Amino acid sequence: MEFEAWWLVLFPVFFALGWLAARIDIKHVLADSKSLPQAYFKGLNFLLNEQTDKAVEVYVDLARNHAETIELQFALGHLFRRKGEIERAIRMHQKLLERAELKPEQRHAAQYELGLDFMKAGLFDRAEELFESLEGTELARGALRHLLDIYQQEKEWKRAIEVAQQLRDTSHTYQHEIAEFYCELANHAAIKSQPKEARQFLQQALAEHRKCVRANLILGDLEVAEQNWMEAIDAWQKIESQDHRYLPMVAKRLLDIYDRLGKIEEGTALVRGYLATYPELDMLELVHDRILQYEGSESAANFLSEELKRSPSILGLIKLLDSQAVGAQPERKSELDLMKKLVQDNTRSLAMYHCGRCGFKARQYFWHCPACNEWESFLPSRGQTRPN
Ligand SMILES: [Zn+2]
């Protein structure tokens, strides 16, 4: 197509039209603001002076006569909740709900907000009722997510499974979470001495998520409780193909079984094999302690220094200093202790478990992060700060 120069004439015309449109808009806005009732500014003033109580009263009165301030009430309620003034947020949203003229979507939004208020106040039963009432509405999915939070906090794992199944889609399959919920149920059944139920829950956990390490961990414990030694070994060894980083968690338990069966060398060979394939600090400690126990301190120290050459690590160095201090002359021992203290002081955070999601650190391993509530977010080896 040929370019026609006369089109250029149109550009100034378009600009002029745009300018005019903007002016009309501004005039419209100015006209609107002039019609805002005086009480609006009075309320705003209370709010700016942090006299939120008085502001609430003013805005509630305003909302009675001016339907357009409904959105303002929502914003205020949200503000109160964020500030931790839960009672005021609840009052605001309850007053909103009393209004007969609310459109259905506004009523749903008020129920949703009130649900969040109750949740923050720890009144889970009331929050649950409100979120459940939103089924089939445009806010149903958000309400389900909050219900999932409530059921997890209340440890109602069966209901949590139902909700997670409803929520699952291609972007979030909830496999990890559902498998963890089954593991929680299995643990609970095991505590109540119901091994049959516990096993069924573990099967469901593995059916949901075949790489659920925790299910095999618990299964091994169940087998041990019934003295099914070989079955326990089988369950725990499966963890290698699920996620080898979790092996150090079961290695000690595996060794206990081998020792009980009188297969001491077989046990040692197994954990040494794991260490050769997956050099992890916890496995290194375990093999070292075993050599110390069965072969003496010299062999153990030699083993450690060889391992450190192969796979250098700060935590391994601490262990080596520790091991050399055992049985050393007093002067040498105090030197080694000082070196160990210096290294430890500078690497304290390494000897902890980390949440891969929020960075929370702890001496203990958690399946459910106490800081960010994520499942299986703790890295299974101490000192790790990111997944392998
Ligand atoms: Zn976390």
Essential attributes:
single chain; 388 residues; Serine Threonine Protein Phosphatase 5, Tetratricopeptide repeat; 20 helices; binds zinc ion
What hetero molecules are bound to the protein chains? Answer: zinc ion
Q: Provide the CATH architecture of the domain at 37-154.
A: Alpha Horseshoe
Fraction of residues in β-strands? under 5%
Main beta-sheet annotation: 2 strands, antiparallel
Please report the number of helical segments: 20
The Rg value, from CA coordinates, equals 32 Å
The CATH topology assignment of the domain at 37-154 is: Serine Threonine Protein Phosphatase 5, Tetratricopeptide repeat
**Terminus-to-terminus distance:** 58 Å
As a percent range, the share of helical residues equals 55-70%
Give the rounded overall mean pLDDT.
Answer: 84
Residue windows where pLDDT falls under 50 for at least 5 positions: none
Strand order of the largest sheet: 1-2
Structural class: mainly alpha
Morphology: elongated
Q: What are the secondary-structure elements, in order, as H or E? A: HHHHHHHHHHHHHHHHHHHHEE
Q: How many E-type strands?
A: 2
Going by CATH, the homologous superfamily of the domain at 37-154 would be Tetratricopeptide repeat domain
CATH class of the domain at 37-154: Mainly Alpha
